[in-house]
Amino acid sequence: MNVPQSLKYTKDHEWVRVDGDLAIVGITDFAQHELGDIVYIEVGTIGETLDQEETFGTIEAVKTVSDLFMPVGGEILEFNDELESSPDIINKDPYEKGWIIKVKMSDVSELDALLTADQYLELTGA
Amino acid sequence: MGARMVPFAGFYMPIQFEGINAEHETVRKSLGVFDVSHMGEIWVRGPKALELIQRVSSNDASVLTDGKVQYACFPNDTGGIVDDFLVYRFGEESFLLVVNAANIEKDWEWINLQNEGINASLMNASDQISQLAVQGPLALKAMQKLTKEAIVEMPYYTFKKLSFAGAEDVILSTTGYTGSGGCEIYFNNNDGITIYQAVLDAGAEFGIKPIGLAARDTLRLEMGFCLYGNDINDQTSPIEAGLGWITKFSEGKDFINRDELYRQKNEGVTQKLVGFEMLDRGIPRQHYSILDHDGQHIGEVTSGTMSPSLKKPIGMGYVKTPFAKAGSTIYIEVRGKALKAEIVKLPFYKP
Questions:
Q1: ipTM value of the model?
Q2: Within a domain: residue A73?
Q3: Can you give the pTM of this predicted structure?
């Protein structure tokens, strides 16, 4: 299982790449593997400002529907709209081409609550 | 085999192996093998065998000849369905009923209850018989390597008892739950490992793969086949469910709830099971509400998925009869939004 050291993680199996006050968010390799073939992704919250742990969208595999949660609070600036036509990009490349949203963080100190790669690995029992 | 396993009806079952879409495509294009040993098998024998079956089955088993299979359901006496099943005729006084795993106990009790006063001989062989479904356009060609009996030309819904992969008394029927052709193979549990390995070996040159329950569901849904517990249950009538074609009101066939179902067939029903395709983006799921264009509730989704073959979201559900015609526009309530969908004829997909 691939868990890059440079990223932050949540217990909901999301990752965050931090660039100043910008957070790029996706789901982990573990999550995409657990979900199986991803067939649909919906983010109807572009332009909205949401709190940490609020639902910003939905991801669907063939058999399951899961909510996507804000790893940190902030304004949702952008959605990776390539995922609309090809949601399986997340299965193939969860950490790069499979990013989901970009968030302008309201409070960067919220990052402190996230997991390191090692803590996340421990959580998934790998 | 790297399978992801889940508990199902008391068995520990593979939900998927390499991925639903890949497994689905394998069955549509070549062949795959499903371990469906959890299915139930009940023998009905003796001089009263047919009488009992005619009493409990919606279909007319009197038209069966030896070697023929028939799809049917057990209507209950309150308007619903106890289970759907297959009937195999082995002889005038010998029939095998193949029922859903989750319903084995319920069916067994139901049949025994109806057998009071008829006294056919009943045997629940579910724990002795294993079953593999080998499905796909190349399935029969591959399985032909394992038996001397000719199976490639067997008509749909027939069966043979044969020697298969070195095992005796194996039952092979040209039935299945995928719409892609192939067969279902029944055998003694003791022959399980030998036969499973032989099936994999025989199919290897054609690219056989083990298929999980999840792809079994997408394959059957593309065909519009009902799944008990989703699309039909103890409350849904076979007439509402579009199973009028297996509900036969033949002269002298006095099956359970015949009068009420006959009335429904003649006078019509207030809701019908339909298939629909999404026009807006979104995937229908079981229990989502179905709305009309004014937002009024007109029904509920019973099955839904992204169709791997069609690459579009499809579903089945009950709607009020005026909305049931192909071409009608309905709306599926997905997370608070009403998404447009269109009623279509079944099957969704023709392999």
A1: 0.76
A2: yes
A3: 0.90
